[in-house]
Amino acid sequence: MATLRRTVRLHAAQAEFRRSPARYRAFCGGRGAGKSWVGAYDLLRRLRPGGTYLVASPTGVLMQDTTFPTLKQIATDLGVWGGVKLTPYPTATVLIDGGNATVRLRTAEDPEKLRGPNLRGAWLDEASLMHEDAYKITIGALRDGGHVGWLSATFTPKGPSHWTYDTFATGRPDTSLTRATTDANPFLSPDF
């Protein structure tokens, strides 16, 4: 089997986020800072064959309009998109290292519905629009196949009284926060 290599350009904050060895990582930035893009790319790079992963978005509208299309486009561009089964719940297949990874696509409108699957990793897109229970319930599922899983969160800041600040910005062990301004994204049009 041939190995395919692709060059992917990241801006400085995205690269910092990708390099972080922390188990719980967050990328926080303004609109257009590249949050969903780096969250999807990070997830795809961390998938392992046979693993089950979660992608959560705060609402069905955000999942359909942003999170899912971004994930699918990057996976397609990288040549690893294996398809999606839409019913009863959307589940994508990603082709990784000669095997498949399963990616469950869910909304966090009712965090209790995130219970159930054992996961190797999770990405919460627009986490600051989710209730803190979505994070807590997901953390409890990071135990697939005897592996201690990881979690990445991407979001727009909501201030120091929000759970995302307390979780990612206060120096908790094995946690990191990368911040980015909109103008840090060189891939945006200069007119934006």
How are the SSEs placed, and which strands pair?
Layout: H1 12-19, E1 24-29, H2 35-46, E2 52-57, H3 60-77, E3 81-85, E4 91-96, E5 99-107, E6 121-125, H4 132-139, E7 150-155, H5 163-168, E8 175-180
Parallel strand pairs: 1-7, 1-8, 2-5, 2-6, 6-7
Antiparallel strand pairs: 3-4, 4-5
Helix pairs in contact: 2-3
Summarize the structure.
This protein has 192 residues and is an alpha/beta fold. The chain has five helices and eight strands.
Notes on the protein architecture:
With 192 residues, this protein is of the alpha/beta class. It is built from 5 helices and 8 strands; from the N terminus they run H-E-H-E-H-E-E-E-E-H-E-H-E. It has helices at residues 12-19, 35-46, 60-77, 132-139, 163-168, and strands at residues 24-29, 52-57, 81-85, 91-96, 99-107, 121-125, 150-155, 175-180. The chain has an 8-stranded mixed sheet, with helices on both faces. It is globular and about 40 Å long. The chain starts with 11 loop residues before the first helix and ends in a 12-residue tail after the last strand. The model has no long low-confidence stretch (mean pLDDT 92).
- Helix coverage percent of residues? 25-40%
Number of helices: 5
The description of the largest β-sheet is:
8 strands, mixed
Give the H and E element order.
Answer: HEHEHEEEEHEHE
Give the CA-CA distance, first to last residue: 43 Å
Task: Give a count of the beta strands, DSSP E runs of length 2 or more.
Answer: 8
Q: Structural class, from helix and strand content?
A: alpha/beta
Low-confidence stretches: none
Q: How would you state the average pLDDT, rounded? A: 92
Strands side by side in the biggest sheet: 3-4-5-2-6-7-1-8
Shape verdict: globular
